[in-house]
């Protein structure tokens, strides 16, 4: 989100460095003359014209009837905090841009909730990203009477109780709500502020339990459709977040774990939304620093217990860049604590890129996830924050960036959420970034008042003709990554006792089968391609640790140890100790679904995946073997000869019936 960053100083090579992270505060400048009047968009379907819950099919989000549901969203911020972190939390001047939310969604002191929600619908919004802080959940202090002056029925309520009412009224109006854990503490985000990670100012256990509380709290409201797990994971003073290292800064592992817990322990209907890493490194020329966004997903993607529930997200603003922190550069005046030049580097900002360069960077950082089909990482991408200054934004680069970015959202038919929807104004002056502003007397200023240059681009975006109607089911492709512990994504197996104690276990989601393995690195690839669910609902599973099911005259890997499933069973998982194969997990298929003719696929000396293998590179830099789409894996072979690590060398692939 556009926001002011708190400075942090860290010693490095005996030099005092000031670390800042993007985004920074919204800019306010000289108001321009009235813009051309643009009519409000006409949206064919009303916000209520969809059936929850939501799920995914490939790159698309769909409703319960399988119809595409495009998230045309906005952020209604405030419940995660607007206080800057210094001064008095009761003083408006010490809140971001002078806007004091009162620990709840902004604007409830100035306009009735029904009016605010109606405003969202007027500008074409069908869904709301609703930030909250962990502190807000447990805050027992009632909101002040003044902070709900326009909504007196909220007097005496705690911030969470107000949040409850907001959720109820949004969904009653037909809007979808995405819960967004924005910060640990109730304050403006994002910088070196104690909110850099999910576990920055609290334990990971507290974070997970708070998510279970929130998911259960709204479980009976099916228009609460998503859990946006955490906002803008980034570096603190000393340490970077990472994607897959297995430590307490591992955002991949933390989001994988809590996503599965939400689905299995709280609400199986929610979309699980995972934002990429927002920033790593120290923004000083000559030192490593970057905005990874979703790029790590290409090499390591999530696999949840329920296929069709994962959405990835990313944020983009003009003043940030792929390697630029978004530090202030002395541009239009803003309410910011940053001094000119702090955290500044020579790296280009997104607004500095040509349209062609911008497209290339955006696709590399995020949009590839939805553009590349039939891969382990294919999923919808929700641009859950983007925005720009409004009437007072006179910068040519800023305006051009917004137009170009909107063009790319339309070009890619992407889901999106504008930041922010609600702001304050006095005499049509103020923060400026919001699409709807209210003054202290309750007078609204909107994007369609005739003096906001963003109106034409917003109309173009909201009214864009993207895909609509039914979306056919697609094959799912999923990565297994027991890199640092169990990666069991089968509900059926999770409900059973440990089937290989002491080993790291990997199991495909129910409905998928194992199709690929890597020679080293312990990675696996699952899919339901060609066959759909294979596991017999009445059938069991068998753990195979020896060659008892290798039939006479069928030595498909001579001289190697073969862990083969019995006839009528298929591979759904495996276990490892260190890098060595420990056991194979085989599941029973209904009679007549599995053939017996087979072939050996060797991958100990190179890739063996076929010329048009799907699933993407599920183990980058490793040799991989993969059965064909019309096959199933029925065995794993390895060697225990001297010098071998007992890693997988071959797969036994059999034809589906």
What does this structure look like?
There is one protein chain. With 657 residues, the protein is an alpha/beta fold. The chain folds into two domains: 65-80 and 126-136 and 176-332 and 343-463, Glycosidases (TIM Barrel), CATH 3.20.20; 477-656, no CATH class. The chain has helices at residues 113-122, 134-138, 159-172, 204-217, 251-265, 355-371, 396-411, 455-462, 491-494; strands at residues 8-12, 15-19, 55-57, 60-62, 72-75, 127-133, 176-183, 224-228, 271-275, 280-281, 289-290, 310-315, 381-386, 415-418, 422-426, 429-430, 436-438, 444-446, 477-480, 487-488, 504-507, 513-518, 524-527, 541-544, 561-564, 569-577, 580-588, 594-602, 624-626, 631-638, 650-656. The protein is elongated. The protein starts with 7 loop residues before the first strand and ends with a strand.
Summarize the structure.
About 15% of the residues lie in helices and about 25% in strands. It is of the alpha/beta class and about 650 residues long. The strands form eight sheets. Strands 5-6-7-8-9-12-13-14 form an eight-stranded parallel barrel, surrounded by four helices. A five-stranded mixed β-sheet has the order 20-21-26-27-24. A four-stranded mixed β-sheet has the order 16-15-17-18, covered by helices on one side.
């Amino acid at each position: 989100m556009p926001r002011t960053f708190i400075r942090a100083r860290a010693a490095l090579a005996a030099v005092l460095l000031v670390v800042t992270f993007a985004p920074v505060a919204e800019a306010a400048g000289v108001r321009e003359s009235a813009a051309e009047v643009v009519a409000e968009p006409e949206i064919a379907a009303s916000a209520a014209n969809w059936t929850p819950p939501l799920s995914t099919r490939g790159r698309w989000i769909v409703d319960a009837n399988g119809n595409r549901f495009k998230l045309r969203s906005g952020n209604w911020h405030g419940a995660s905090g607007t206080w800057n972190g210094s001064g008095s939390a009761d003083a408006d001047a010490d809140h971001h841009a002078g806007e004091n939310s009162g620990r709840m969604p902004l604007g409830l002191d100035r306009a009735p909730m029904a009016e605010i929600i109606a405003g969202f619908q007027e500008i074409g919004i069908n869904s709301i990203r609703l930030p909250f802080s962990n502190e807000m959940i447990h805050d027992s202090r009632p909101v002040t009477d003044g902070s709900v002056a326009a909504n007196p029925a909220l007097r005496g309520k705690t911030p969470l109780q107000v949040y409850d009412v907001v959720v109820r009224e949004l969904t009653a109006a037909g809007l979808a709500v995405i819960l967004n854990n924005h910060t640990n503490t109730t304050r403006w985000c994002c910088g070196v502020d104690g909110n850099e990670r999910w576990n920055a100012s609290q334990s990971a256990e507290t974070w997970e339990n708070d998510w279970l509380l929130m998911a259960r709290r709204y479980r009976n409201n099916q228009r609460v459709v998503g859990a946006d797990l955490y906002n803008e994971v980034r570096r603190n003073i000393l340490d970077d977040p990472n994607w897959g290292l297995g430590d307490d800064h591992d955002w991949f592992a933390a989001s994988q774990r809590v996503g599965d817990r939400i689905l299995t322990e709280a609400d199986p209907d929610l979309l699980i939304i995972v934002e990429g890493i927002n920033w790593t490194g120290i923004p000083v020329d000559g030192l490593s620093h970057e905005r990874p966004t979703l790029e790590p997903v290409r090499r390591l993607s999530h696999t949840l217990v329920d296929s069709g529930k994962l959405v990835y997200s990313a944020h983009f603003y003009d003043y940030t860049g792929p390697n630029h922190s978004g530090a202030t550069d002395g541009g239009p005046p803003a309410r910011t604590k940053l001094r000119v030049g702090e955290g500044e580097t020579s790296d280009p900002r997104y607004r500095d890129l040509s349209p062609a360069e911008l497209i290339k960077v955006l696709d590399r950082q995020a949009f590839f996830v939805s553009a590349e089909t039939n891969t382990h990482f294919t999923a919808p991408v929700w641009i859950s924050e983007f925005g720009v200054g409004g009437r007072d934004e006179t910068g040519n680069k800023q305006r051009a960036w917004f137009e170009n970015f909107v063009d790319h959202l339309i070009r890619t038919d992407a889901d999106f959420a504008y930041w922010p929807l609600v702001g304050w104004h006095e005499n049509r002056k103020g923060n400026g970034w919001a699409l709807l502003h209210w003054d202290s007397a309750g007078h609204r200023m909107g994007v369609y008042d005739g003096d906001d240059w963003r109106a034409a681009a917003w109309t173009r975006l909201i009214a864009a003709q993207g895909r609509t109607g039914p979306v056919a089911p697609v094959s799912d492709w999923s990565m297994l990554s027991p890199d640092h512990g169990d990666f069991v994504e089968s509900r059926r197996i999770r409900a059973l006792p440990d089937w290989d104690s002491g080993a790291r276990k990997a199991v495909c989601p129910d409905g998928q089968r194992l199709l690929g393995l890597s020679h080293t690195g312990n990675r696996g690839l699952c899919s339901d391609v060609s066959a759909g669910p294979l596991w017999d609902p009445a059938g069991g599973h068998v753990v195979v640790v020896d060659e008892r099911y290798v039939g006479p005259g069928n030595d498909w890997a001579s001289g190697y140890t073969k862990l083969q499933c019995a006839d009528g069973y298929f591979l759904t998982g495996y276990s490892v100790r260190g890098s060595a194969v420990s056991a194979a997990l085989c599941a029973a298929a209904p009679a007549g679904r599995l053939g017996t003719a087979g072939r050996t696929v060797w991958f100990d000396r190179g890739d063996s995946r076929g010329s048009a293998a799907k699933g993407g590179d599920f183990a980058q830099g490793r040799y991989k073997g993969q059965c064909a789409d019309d096959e199933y894996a029925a065995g794993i072979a390895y060697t225990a000869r001297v010098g071998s690590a007992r890693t997988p060398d071959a797969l036994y692939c059999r034809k589906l019936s």
